[in-house]
Specification:
Blueprint: H1 2-15, H2 18-94, H3 118-122, H4 133-170, E1 174-176, H5 178-181, E2 187-190, H6 192-197, H7 202-216, H8 218-240
Antiparallel strand pairs: 1-2
Helix pairs in contact: 1-2, 2-7, 2-8, 4-7, 4-8
């Protein structure tokens, strides 16, 4: 092809036709430009195909992380629900609506919550990297409700560690001793009989009421997370199929 263009160029120069030579030169430049544009477009297509393939691989990993999140969320919700039930049972006992012998899991009152969403921890900037608009929106929403849930957990832990535990110690609800903990200075368990005897004291009722509100905060947020998780899973499946 190059040899053919060279012969045409030499022939036009030999005939001395400047107009035809200029037209040929312009045409040759246009062919070069068109060739470059085609090459760039092919390269863009290849890069886009690679990006799409890489995104699908990444989203497949994210899908597994989101599913792992659901296990963490379910465990966290079960803990909060069980703790809420402890306070509800004590309220019913104080009103004479429930037998003290029915009280279960009282030591949950001094426990902290633990929640580490895998998807958000491993892929914090994922929403800014995906190309699909609907998927980007679902990721932003899912991370938003996860952030709210994390805040609720942090607030509960702050209450449990900074307020509830000192209160339990002040009220002498905690049993200390090597027999229970292996450490003579570490509280081992909550003495149920002492708690029940003090259930009608105003300070105890107020503290347990506040604890009830803390454990209830997760309820509506959990339902929202579950809904957003299902929406996100559906979008990821749509993009990766």
């Amino acid at each position: 092809m190059i040899t053919l263009f060279r012969r045409i160029r030499q022939k036009l120069i030999a005939t001395g036709s400047i107009t035809k030579y200029l037209l040929y030169a312009i045409g040759e430049i246009l062919l070069v430009v068109i060739g470059i544009l085609i090459a760039l477009q092919v390269n863009n297509w290849n890069e886009e195909r690679k990006a799409t393939g890489n995104e699908k691989i990444l989203l497949t990993e994210v899908l597994e992380a989101v599913r792992a999140d659901s296990v963490e969320l379910a465990a966290m919700a079960a803990f909060m629900d069980s703790t809420f039930n402890v306070y509800a049972q004590m309220y019913m006992i104080s009103n004479g609506d429930l037998s003290p012998e029915s009280l279960r899991n009282i030591d949950l009152m001094r426990n902290s919550a633990n929640f580490r969403p895998i998807s958000k921890g491993n892929y914090p900037d994922l929403a800014s990297k995906v190309m699909d608009t609907n998927l980007k929106k679902r990721l932003f929403e899912y991370y938003r409700v996860l952030s709210i849930w994390e805040y609720v957990v942090e607030e509960y832990n702050r209450f449990s560690e900074d307020i509830m535990r000192p209160f339990l110690g002040e009220q002498e609800f905690l049993i200390y001793g090597f027999h229970h903990t292996g450490d003579p200075m570490r509280p081992g368990k909550i003495e149920m009989a002492i708690v029940i005897n003090k259930l009608n004291e105003p300070a105890v009722q107020q503290m347990f009421f506040e604890a009830t509100q803390k454990t209830r905060n997760y309820l509506g947020i959990y339902d929202e997370i579950v809904a957003e998780r299902e929406n996100l899973v559906a979008e990821i499946k749509r993009v990766t199929k």
